C-alpha cells in the first residue's frame, strides 16, 4: 500500500521538484538518532543514512538532515536501507546555538508552519524565557503560538496573561490544561490539512502530554514536574515527527534547559521597542543617555518596562556573538569589558598585586 505523503506535509512545490529528479525518491525525515535517521516515502518507513558524497560535501552541521527535512533518497536493492542523497531547501528552520564550545548551531526542526512555545503556569513561568523563545521562533520563518500549560494549577491565569501582554504582541496565547482538557481544542485548530507544528519548551512543562492528546493515545512517555523544585525531567530524548489522526503532523523535541539564541528577529520579538527606536532623534541611538531618545521617554512615562529594554539589550548582544568564532567571541568580550587585551593584562596584574599583599 502506498503512503500518501500529503498527510506528512507534502506541498505542490515539492511535488514539482521531485518530478524533475525521477532517479531519486522523495521522502521526509521523521526521526534522528545521532548519525542515523528514519524517513518516510511512498513505500513506507525506512532506516536511512547520509550518502557518502553528500557527507563529503556537507561542511556545516546545520546543513545535515534534521527531523522535518524533505530529502531525496535512493533505496538499497533489498529495500532495507535508504541513502539520503540531497536535502531540499527548507521553508523554515528552528535553530538554536550549540551548548558546546564548538559554536556550531543545532537544528531543532525543519519545515515547520507553527511553533508552540510551551511554558507551565507554575514556578516555571518566566517572561524573559518567552522573549528568548519568540526571538528564535520569529527568526525560523514559522508562526509562534505561546501555550501556557497546567492552567489547572494556577490560581490567577489572567494575571499571568497580563504579565505576558507586552512580550506577546501579535502572537496568539493559549492557556490550557491537559488534565482537565480546557483549551486543548484550541490547539487543534492550528493543526489542519498537511500543516506541520512543533512543540518546544523546558523539560516537564507538558509538551508530551499535549501531543498525546492530539494523537488520541499515549504514544509519548510523560512525567510530572518534580514537586520539590518545579524542574522537569527529560522524557523526550530525540526528535520525532508524528502524523495526527485528524490531519497534519507534529514534531516533538527534547526539553531545553539551556537556551542560547543562534539567530533571532528582534524586530518582531521586540516590536514595541523597535517601533519606539524608529522615533529616536539619532539613528544610532543606544537608548541610554542620548537626547531625544523615544525609548527612554517611554520608560519615563511608564509605557515601557525597564526590564523589557534590558532583555532586548542582552539578546542583541548575544546575537552579535552568535556568528563569531570562539576566538572572535572571546576577543569581543575582552574589548567590551576591558577595552583591549593590553588593558585586561594590566587589570589582572593589578589584581594579582593586591592578592599578594
In spatial order, strands of the major sheet run: 10-9-8-11-13-12
pLDDT averaged residue by residue: 81
Distance between the termini: 82 Å
- CATH homologous superfamily grouping of the largest domain: P-loop containing nucleotide triphosphate hydrolases
Major pleated sheet: 6 strands, mixed
Write the layout of secondary structure elements.
Layout: H1 12-19, E1 25-33, E2 36-41, E3 44-50, H2 52-57, E4 70-75, E5 82-87, E6 93-97, E7 105-110, E8 114-120, H3 127-140, E9 143-149, H4 157-164, E10 172-175, H5 184-188, E11 196-201, H6 207-215, E12 240-243, E13 249-252, H7 266-269, H8 271-277, H9 294-300, H10 306-322, H11 326-338, H12 341-356
Parallel strand pairs: 3-5, 8-9, 8-11, 9-10, 11-13
Antiparallel strand pairs: 1-2, 1-4, 2-3, 4-5, 6-7, 12-13
Helix pairs in contact: 11-12
Binding site for GTP: 149-152, 201-209
Protein name: Small ribosomal subunit biogenesis GTPase RsgA
EC number: 3.6.1.-
